[in-house]
Amino acid sequence: MSNGQGWRNRPWSDIPSTMGLAPFFFDHFKPGDCILDLGCGPGRICIDLAGRGFTRIHGLDVSHSGLARAARLGLEIPPPSVRPRFTLGLSSALPYRTAGFDGLIMQAVLTLIWKTEERERTGSEIGRVLNRTGRLYLADFGQAWDNPRYETRYREGLRRGYDRGVFEVTDPETGRLDYKARHYTREEIVEFCRTAGLEPIEYQARISTTRTGQRIPGHVVVAEKNGR
How confident is the model at residue 1 (pLDDT cuts 50, 70, 90)? Predict the structure, then answer.
């Protein structure tokens, strides 16, 4: 995620991890690809891919605890040369060389990048680190205006001057602001891909489970570099 929003020092068990890869992921990404999981948390997807024969996997997250957990799990994968590599960093300033990746995974990360300028910087960085034939796999939450709980949150966000789909999440025990999140329309997901110089080539709508167990609409898209 971009600015961390307080996730940096949370225990890894607090990091939401409710999304698995859609089956069509494997139609677009192959074991020889060099892939970055952006917002990898405790490394579940990275470890799973390594177990499927993907030997060039990198994970990046803002959470110290999440990365420590990921590194411990990675030790179980032999040999060391094929273990995922985990790095601390921000989506808006990726610590990787230009055109170094064949693919990039971004699951339930865009929802935490609610500010337009941070989203644009993240898109630019994704475009920079993907090579000329690179692809992005993006999965995130859609807007759920027919869900009374989220409709109330969205309308309160609008009242506070936030963009449509932005809402505040409060700590259930203290009532204090925990973080802000955003749910996206399909058009906004496509627009984000294009800020990275990518064009969607496959899209799937699916029901996604939120951190609090709510089942709401979601988006899954694979986008590729323009001019491939």
Answer: very low
Neighbours of 24 (CB within 10 A): 13
Query: Is 54 in a helix, a strand, or coil?
Result: coil
The full DSSP string for 64-100 is: HHHHHHHHHHHTTSSSGGGS-EEEE-BTTB--S-TT-
107, 139 contact by CB (below 8 A)? yes
The listed CATH number (3.40.50.720, 1.10.490.160, 2.40.37.20, 3.40.50.150) that belongs to domain 24-142+183-225: 3.40.50.150
Half-sphere exposure of 130 (CA within 13 A, CB side): 27
Residue 85 burial (CB < 10 Å; 0-12/13-18/19+)? Answer: middle
Alpha carbons 99 and 176: distance in angstroms, whole number = 41
207-220 confidence digits (pLDDT tens): 998 877 889 999 99
Amino acid at 173: E
What SS3 class is residue 20? coil
Whole-model pTM: value is: 0.91
